[in-house]
Amino acid sequence: xxxxxxxxxxxxxxxxxxxxxxxxxxxxxxxxxxxxxxxxxxxxxxxxxxxxxxxxxxxxxxxxxxxxxxxxxxxxxxxxxxxxxxxxxxxxxxxxxxxxxxxxxxxxxxxxxxxxxxxxxxxxxxxxxxxxxxxxxxxxxxxxxxxxxxxxxxxxxxxxxxxxxxxxxxxxxxxxxxxxxxxxxxxxxxxxxxxxxxxxxxxxxxxxxxxxxxxxxxxxxxxxxxxxxxxxxxxxxxxxxxxxxxxxxxxxxxxxxxxxxxxxxxxxxxxxxxxxxxxxxxxxxxxxxxxxxxxxxxxxxxxxxxxxxxxxxxxxxxxxxxxxxxxxxxxxxxxxxxxxxxxxxxxxxxxxxxxxxxxxxxxxxxxxxxxxxxxxxxxxxxxxxxxxxxxxxxxxxxxxxxxxxxxxxxxxxxxxxxxxxxxxxxxxxxxxxxxxxxxxxxxxxxxxxxxx
Length: 452
Prior knowledge:
This protein is α+β, with helices and mostly antiparallel strands. It contains 14 helices and 23 strands. It has a 7-stranded antiparallel β-sheet, with helices on one face. Strands 5-6-7-8-12-13 form a 6-stranded antiparallel β-sheet, covered by helices on one side. A hairpin with a 2-residue loop joins strand 15 and strand 16.
């Protein structure tokens, strides 16, 4: 995941605050870097391996004032912003220009089959198609044709042709990543999540359809559906990626996570002495389990400030180090049967040595894990599968059997999983990308997978 936002005023009004606060509101989608491109008398870009706040307040030799102060003075009428998480992409926006066009591109998602970073590849494909067709909609259709079933991706692109500026946004035909459209008066915004629109203070209009493109310029908005395919939103948007405050395809993310917690209690019926959510994506599960069971929530697990997300750290030594330093445990767990709510168990490193073992060291009588998601015997399509999953080899077993085996593997007293069909139903039913739970990679060309 990464966060993207684009803002365009058809009346050429200043969009600085909408862009700034909309990007702040999507910091949850990326902590490895941030970047902004704005349009007014050319495209200007700033990007750093820093947080959004640091990006906007930093003063350098090149920027005598802070970047935010620069924008307030420049008063851009169009801009894009990015928060970086995916290691398959680089720091963005990514720009290309020639004597006809100047583009700045940001993206969310992962596609396979290319040596270069995804953002560079996508920018090159779009830029060539744009120069060939001289039409943003036709260029996007070419992109979707070339990246057919290579993965999930969204993009926002500033396009300048002489003195004309356009904002182009598109969502891949599978709709694997969410993308929302908003409008206030004559200002449009496009964001990964509705929380980004909330931050920009631009009301939500609709989800951008999979396989669709939006082009915004001084004349307004044009949109077109280019490709029709089976819709497969990545179910992890509800489980982990998205902010609990966002609404994705009509479903409130926090409400979904609470229902997953309620479903766990209805399945297992177990009442620990206290519930301790794993910050932050385990909180919704704890709220639902607590409402259903009457067990009180205690915030006895706190995240160490400055620690990073660990599920994409592939180096096992580094991941172990980060896992051990990620959380602090309050001694008030002593003598308690502690149910730790978690969004998912991938390899089990964090919940094992990073949380549950620490809970036991503080004198807890019991440390078990309540998991929103289902067992994950398989790797995600974007993985190179170097290390084993906590539930590897357990496909076909009941969630109760899988939970008992995983509990032994990661050193906890119990693991309660939801069934994948229950998860799908709670998330709205229909079709989702559930590759790590089901091993279904039919949405990807098999030859592109890094594992077979």
